[in-house]
Amino acid sequence: MANSMVGLDIGATGIRAAEVTRTRKGMALARYHSIALPPGAVVRGEVMEPHVVTGALRELWKRGKFSSKRVVLGVGNDRVLARELTVPAAPLPMIRESLPFQVQDLLPVPISEAILDFYPISDAGHGQVHGLLVAAVKEGVLSTIEAVRRARLETVAVDFVPFALTRALPQRAEDGDAIAVVDVGAHTTTVVISRAGVPHFVRIIPTGGDEVTQTLHARLQLERPVAEDAKRTLGLGMNGFMPHDQPVIEAIREVTGELVTGVRNTVSYFASSRPDLPVRRVVLTGDGASLGGFPAALGEVMRLPIDWGDPLASVLTKERDRPRTNGAANRAAVALGLAMRSAA
């Protein structure tokens, strides 16, 4: 398909790819497939073992039967900076070219070591435009692009994961105010607050579902596969548990409580800085959010409605092309949103 693009989400536990194409009826999901990665191949969004990732990509294309080798790559780990910025109004290419001269004092790394982008949000008046500055560490992005290249794939664009989430999980017609999308990954949790499909605030919390597994492994000396199984089986213990599981439940609740507090504080900070844009709903996605009891715990603390995101609602699909389970569909949000960037 000449007009198709593949969104590529490379995470700590696996790689997910979604191929989206334009049709006369709208955007359509042509293919979706995922493949697992061994621990340590990707850590906090950065490729540590390029040959492993390259091999997995080749196998993913073989199994998924993707028709295109052109990919949009997602970045969004805790080494990516996103902050509000107001700049002189100009065509977007000119704004992007001028960023190195405007943002050096805002970055924790030298300009030469960063990849910069700007997402315009609104007219700030007086010849100014307000938007989000995105800065990623160049070394990590280039190593991922190289692993993709060695798999004989072409990276045509690099996109910010929160922007992909905003595309894949559009607001409902009745959402007049803002929503907070919370994507819980293995090592990071992304919170993006948007209204009418436009992101207004982003924070990447350096904690995810793997933090629970690691705590069970370190504190209770459980082997990682056993710890992972206990986490998924017991969750927060909302449906009861055996007395001998008490130490496991306490550890899970402690780590999850810290994450829930981080999400609440992020939304509270936005609410205090933008009282004109209240958040009315939280949309959950990501594998880590499927921890038993997590949605209820988050809703209790935030006192907001909690819904599961449905990335497939924004594209046309055929039954054979859909992710096979609700959990797989939930994990597909980033890859789908990345592909939608170029298919829009």
UniProtKB/TrEMBL annotation:
NCBIfam families: pilM. Pfam families: PilM_2 (PF11104). It comes from Agrococcus pavilionensis RW1. It comes from the Bacteria. Residues 5-169 form the SHS2 domain. GO terms for biological process: cell division. This is SHS2 domain-containing protein.
